[in-house]
Design a protein that fits this description.
The protein is an alpha/beta fold. The chain is built from 9 helices and 12 strands. Helix 2 links the parallel strand 2 and strand 3. It is globular and about 50 Å long. The structure holds fe (ii) ion (FE2).
Length: 284
Protein backbone atom coordinates (compact mmCIF):
# COMPACT_ATOMS: atom_id res chain seq x y z
CA UNK A 1 0.00 0.00 0.00
CA UNK A 2 1.33 3.40 -0.84
CA UNK A 3 1.11 5.83 2.09
CA UNK A 4 -1.46 7.85 0.19
CA UNK A 5 -3.62 4.85 -0.74
CA UNK A 6 -6.51 4.39 1.66
CA UNK A 7 -8.13 1.11 2.73
CA UNK A 8 -10.68 2.96 4.84
CA UNK A 9 -11.58 1.56 8.25
CA UNK A 10 -10.27 -1.81 9.42
CA UNK A 11 -9.99 -4.26 12.28
CA UNK A 12 -7.28 -6.25 14.05
CA UNK A 13 -7.15 -9.80 12.67
CA UNK A 14 -7.45 -12.29 15.53
CA UNK A 15 -7.72 -16.07 15.49
CA UNK A 16 -10.81 -15.93 17.75
CA UNK A 17 -12.64 -14.02 15.03
CA UNK A 18 -11.79 -16.36 12.15
CA UNK A 19 -14.87 -18.61 12.42
CA UNK A 20 -17.19 -15.57 12.36
CA UNK A 21 -15.21 -13.92 9.56
CA UNK A 22 -15.29 -17.10 7.48
CA UNK A 23 -19.06 -16.96 7.62
CA UNK A 24 -18.80 -13.60 5.87
CA UNK A 25 -16.69 -10.47 6.29
CA UNK A 26 -18.99 -7.50 6.97
CA UNK A 27 -18.65 -4.95 4.15
CA UNK A 28 -17.77 -2.22 6.66
CA UNK A 29 -14.36 -3.83 7.19
CA UNK A 30 -12.03 -2.35 4.58
CA UNK A 31 -8.88 -4.19 5.69
CA UNK A 32 -7.30 -6.18 8.51
CA UNK A 33 -4.24 -5.53 10.66
CA UNK A 34 -1.99 -8.24 12.06
CA UNK A 35 1.18 -8.51 14.10
CA UNK A 36 3.64 -10.29 11.79
CA UNK A 37 5.44 -11.87 14.78
CA UNK A 38 2.28 -13.85 15.50
CA UNK A 39 2.01 -15.26 11.97
CA UNK A 40 5.48 -15.50 10.40
CA UNK A 41 6.50 -19.13 9.92
CA UNK A 42 3.05 -20.40 10.84
CA UNK A 43 1.97 -23.64 9.19
CA UNK A 44 -1.12 -25.85 9.12
CA UNK A 45 -4.69 -24.63 9.27
CA UNK A 46 -3.74 -21.21 10.71
CA UNK A 47 -1.53 -20.53 7.69
CA UNK A 48 -4.30 -21.70 5.34
CA UNK A 49 -6.81 -19.45 7.14
CA UNK A 50 -4.50 -16.47 6.86
CA UNK A 51 -3.88 -17.13 3.19
CA UNK A 52 -7.63 -17.31 2.59
CA UNK A 53 -8.06 -13.80 3.97
CA UNK A 54 -4.89 -12.16 2.57
CA UNK A 55 -5.90 -13.34 -0.92
CA UNK A 56 -9.23 -11.55 -0.55
CA UNK A 57 -8.64 -8.50 1.69
CA UNK A 58 -5.95 -5.86 2.19
CA UNK A 59 -3.78 -6.30 5.31
CA UNK A 60 -1.46 -4.01 7.25
CA UNK A 61 1.49 -5.26 9.36
CA UNK A 62 1.82 -3.69 12.80
CA UNK A 63 4.93 -4.98 14.59
CA UNK A 64 5.16 -5.70 18.28
CA UNK A 65 8.72 -6.62 19.08
CA UNK A 66 11.21 -4.77 16.88
CA UNK A 67 12.23 -2.59 19.85
CA UNK A 68 13.17 0.40 17.71
CA UNK A 69 14.50 2.32 20.71
CA UNK A 70 16.22 -0.65 22.34
CA UNK A 71 19.87 -0.67 23.39
CA UNK A 72 20.60 -4.10 21.86
CA UNK A 73 21.35 -4.90 18.23
CA UNK A 74 18.46 -4.31 15.80
CA UNK A 75 16.75 -7.61 15.01
CA UNK A 76 17.60 -7.67 11.31
CA UNK A 77 16.66 -11.34 11.02
CA UNK A 78 13.13 -10.46 12.13
CA UNK A 79 12.98 -7.66 9.57
CA UNK A 80 14.03 -10.05 6.80
CA UNK A 81 11.35 -12.53 7.88
CA UNK A 82 8.79 -9.71 7.93
CA UNK A 83 9.88 -8.58 4.47
CA UNK A 84 9.36 -12.10 3.09
CA UNK A 85 6.01 -12.40 4.87
CA UNK A 86 4.81 -9.07 3.45
CA UNK A 87 5.86 -10.07 -0.06
CA UNK A 88 4.22 -13.49 0.29
CA UNK A 89 0.91 -11.97 1.38
CA UNK A 90 0.99 -8.81 -0.75
CA UNK A 91 1.16 -6.47 2.28
CA UNK A 92 2.66 -3.06 1.68
CA UNK A 93 2.48 -1.11 4.98
CA UNK A 94 4.49 -1.92 8.11
CA UNK A 95 4.38 0.13 11.30
CA UNK A 96 6.03 -0.25 14.72
CA UNK A 97 5.93 1.41 18.13
CA UNK A 98 8.26 4.27 18.94
CA UNK A 99 9.38 2.51 22.10
CA UNK A 100 11.66 -0.29 23.24
CA UNK A 101 10.94 -3.71 24.62
CA UNK A 102 14.19 -5.66 24.67
CA UNK A 103 17.80 -5.62 25.72
CA UNK A 104 19.38 -9.07 25.98
CA UNK A 105 15.91 -10.60 26.19
CA UNK A 106 12.36 -9.45 25.58
CA UNK A 107 10.67 -7.45 28.35
CA UNK A 108 7.11 -8.04 27.06
CA UNK A 109 6.27 -4.41 27.63
CA UNK A 110 6.58 -1.33 25.45
CA UNK A 111 8.75 1.20 27.29
CA UNK A 112 9.23 4.88 26.44
CA UNK A 113 12.46 6.20 24.95
CA UNK A 114 14.07 9.19 26.78
CA UNK A 115 13.20 12.38 24.87
CA UNK A 116 16.82 13.39 24.15
CA UNK A 117 18.87 14.44 21.14
CA UNK A 118 21.07 11.34 21.45
CA UNK A 119 17.98 9.11 21.49
CA UNK A 120 16.67 10.83 18.33
CA UNK A 121 19.91 9.95 16.53
CA UNK A 122 19.96 6.39 17.93
CA UNK A 123 16.39 5.48 17.07
CA UNK A 124 16.39 7.31 13.72
CA UNK A 125 19.46 5.34 12.62
CA UNK A 126 17.69 2.09 13.54
CA UNK A 127 14.55 3.13 11.65
CA UNK A 128 16.65 4.02 8.60
CA UNK A 129 18.29 0.59 8.76
CA UNK A 130 14.86 -1.09 9.09
CA UNK A 131 13.67 0.87 6.05
CA UNK A 132 16.79 -0.14 4.13
CA UNK A 133 16.13 -3.83 4.83
CA UNK A 134 12.42 -3.62 4.05
CA UNK A 135 13.02 -1.43 1.01
CA UNK A 136 10.29 1.00 2.04
CA UNK A 137 9.40 3.65 4.61
CA UNK A 138 7.74 2.49 7.82
CA UNK A 139 5.30 4.21 10.16
CA UNK A 140 6.25 4.79 13.81
CA UNK A 141 3.49 4.87 16.42
CA UNK A 142 3.27 7.31 19.32
CA UNK A 143 3.22 4.99 22.34
CA UNK A 144 1.44 5.15 25.68
CA UNK A 145 3.69 5.36 28.76
CA UNK A 146 3.03 5.54 32.48
CA UNK A 147 6.20 7.20 33.75
CA UNK A 148 7.85 10.07 31.89
CA UNK A 149 11.34 8.81 30.97
CA UNK A 150 14.04 10.68 32.92
CA UNK A 151 16.62 13.05 31.40
CA UNK A 152 14.26 14.57 28.82
CA UNK A 153 15.63 17.46 26.76
CA UNK A 154 12.42 18.07 24.79
CA UNK A 155 8.72 17.25 24.86
CA UNK A 156 7.29 14.06 23.40
CA UNK A 157 5.80 15.73 20.31
CA UNK A 158 9.13 17.42 19.57
CA UNK A 159 10.87 14.08 20.02
CA UNK A 160 8.50 12.30 17.62
CA UNK A 161 8.85 15.12 15.06
CA UNK A 162 12.66 14.98 15.27
CA UNK A 163 12.70 11.19 14.81
CA UNK A 164 10.32 11.33 11.82
CA UNK A 165 12.45 14.05 10.19
CA UNK A 166 15.81 12.41 10.93
CA UNK A 167 14.68 8.92 9.85
CA UNK A 168 12.57 10.13 6.91
CA UNK A 169 9.85 7.76 8.05
CA UNK A 170 6.06 8.03 8.39
CA UNK A 171 3.84 8.66 11.41
CA UNK A 172 1.41 6.08 12.75
CA UNK A 173 -0.95 8.08 14.91
CA UNK A 174 -2.69 6.39 17.87
CA UNK A 175 -5.39 8.73 19.16
CA UNK A 176 -6.18 6.53 22.18
CA UNK A 177 -2.52 6.72 23.26
CA UNK A 178 -2.74 10.51 23.06
CA UNK A 179 -5.88 10.46 25.22
CA UNK A 180 -4.29 8.07 27.77
CA UNK A 181 -1.02 10.03 27.99
CA UNK A 182 -2.63 13.47 28.07
CA UNK A 183 -4.96 12.38 30.89
CA UNK A 184 -2.27 10.62 32.94
CA UNK A 185 0.40 13.28 32.44
CA UNK A 186 -1.87 16.33 32.35
CA UNK A 187 -1.45 17.98 28.98
CA UNK A 188 -3.72 19.27 26.22
CA UNK A 189 -4.28 16.51 23.61
CA UNK A 190 -5.16 18.96 20.83
CA UNK A 191 -2.00 21.04 21.38
CA UNK A 192 -0.07 17.76 21.31
CA UNK A 193 -1.76 16.74 18.05
CA UNK A 194 -0.94 20.11 16.53
CA UNK A 195 2.74 19.70 17.44
CA UNK A 196 3.06 16.39 15.55
CA UNK A 197 4.20 16.06 11.90
CA UNK A 198 0.67 15.11 10.84
CA UNK A 199 1.43 15.58 7.14
CA UNK A 200 3.48 12.36 7.47
CA UNK A 201 0.56 10.32 8.86
CA UNK A 202 0.22 6.97 7.08
CA UNK A 203 -2.04 5.13 9.50
CA UNK A 204 -4.25 5.67 12.57
CA UNK A 205 -5.22 3.53 15.58
CA UNK A 206 -8.30 3.94 17.70
CA UNK A 207 -8.84 1.81 20.82
CA UNK A 208 -10.34 1.55 24.28
CA UNK A 209 -8.56 1.59 27.63
CA UNK A 210 -9.07 0.73 31.31
CA UNK A 211 -9.84 3.37 33.94
CA UNK A 212 -8.38 2.61 37.40
CA UNK A 213 -10.14 3.66 40.61
CA UNK A 214 -8.01 6.81 40.94
CA UNK A 215 -8.71 7.82 37.32
CA UNK A 216 -5.37 6.64 35.97
CA UNK A 217 -5.76 5.22 32.45
CA UNK A 218 -4.20 1.96 31.26
CA UNK A 219 -3.88 1.34 27.52
CA UNK A 220 -5.37 -2.16 27.51
CA UNK A 221 -7.19 -2.32 24.14
CA UNK A 222 -9.73 -4.24 26.19
CA UNK A 223 -12.76 -1.94 26.20
CA UNK A 224 -14.95 -0.01 23.80
CA UNK A 225 -13.74 3.28 22.36
CA UNK A 226 -14.99 6.22 24.44
CA UNK A 227 -16.31 9.58 23.29
CA UNK A 228 -13.17 11.72 23.94
CA UNK A 229 -11.16 9.29 21.79
CA UNK A 230 -13.72 9.53 18.95
CA UNK A 231 -13.44 13.32 19.27
CA UNK A 232 -9.66 13.09 18.97
CA UNK A 233 -10.02 10.91 15.87
CA UNK A 234 -12.27 13.59 14.40
CA UNK A 235 -9.72 16.28 15.30
CA UNK A 236 -6.94 14.23 13.71
CA UNK A 237 -8.87 13.80 10.43
CA UNK A 238 -9.61 17.52 10.46
CA UNK A 239 -5.86 18.10 10.39
CA UNK A 240 -4.49 15.29 8.20
CA UNK A 241 -7.49 14.01 6.30
CA UNK A 242 -9.22 10.63 6.65
CA UNK A 243 -6.16 8.34 6.74
CA UNK A 244 -6.53 4.52 6.80
CA UNK A 245 -7.51 3.65 10.38
CA UNK A 246 -7.83 0.50 12.47
CA UNK A 247 -9.84 -0.41 15.57
CA UNK A 248 -7.52 -2.24 18.00
CA UNK A 249 -9.04 -4.77 20.36
CA UNK A 250 -6.75 -7.28 22.09
CA UNK A 251 -8.64 -8.29 25.27
CA UNK A 252 -12.24 -8.86 26.31
CA UNK A 253 -13.02 -9.59 22.69
CA UNK A 254 -16.74 -8.92 22.14
CA UNK A 255 -18.89 -10.44 19.37
CA UNK A 256 -17.79 -9.41 15.89
CA UNK A 257 -20.91 -7.27 15.46
CA UNK A 258 -19.78 -4.99 18.33
CA UNK A 259 -16.36 -4.53 16.74
CA UNK A 260 -17.95 -3.87 13.37
CA UNK A 261 -20.05 -1.13 14.99
CA UNK A 262 -16.80 0.60 15.96
CA UNK A 263 -15.28 0.09 12.50
CA UNK A 264 -18.48 1.61 11.06
CA UNK A 265 -18.12 4.60 13.38
CA UNK A 266 -14.56 5.14 12.12
CA UNK A 267 -15.86 4.95 8.55
CA UNK A 268 -18.64 7.45 9.33
CA UNK A 269 -16.19 10.01 10.77
CA UNK A 270 -13.87 9.34 7.84
CA UNK A 271 -16.66 9.87 5.29
CA UNK A 272 -17.57 13.19 6.89
CA UNK A 273 -14.03 14.43 6.38
CA UNK A 274 -13.79 12.98 2.87
CA UNK A 275 -16.96 14.89 1.97
CA UNK A 276 -15.49 18.11 3.35
CA UNK A 277 -12.28 17.49 1.40
CA UNK A 278 -14.27 16.95 -1.81
CA UNK A 279 -16.24 20.12 -1.19
CA UNK A 280 -13.01 22.04 -0.68
CA UNK A 281 -11.48 20.54 -3.84
CA UNK A 282 -14.67 21.12 -5.85
CA UNK A 283 -14.86 24.68 -4.63
CA UNK A 284 -11.23 25.53 -5.26
FE1 LIG B 1 -1.95 1.49 18.76
Amino acid sequence: MKASQAFGAGLGFRRELIPELKAGVPPDIGFFELAPENWVGMGGSSARDLRFFTERYPFVCHGLSLSLGGPGALDEALLRRVKGFMREHGISLYTEHLSWCSDDGHLYDLLPIPFTGDAVKWVAARIRRAQEILGQRIGIENASYYVVPPGGEMGEAEFISAVVAEADCLLHLDVNNIHVNSTNHGYDPIAFLDALPLQKTCYVHVAGHYVEADGFLVDTHGAEVIEPVWALLDAAYQRCGPVTSCVERDFNIPPLTDLVDEVRQVATIMARHAAVAQRVIAGS
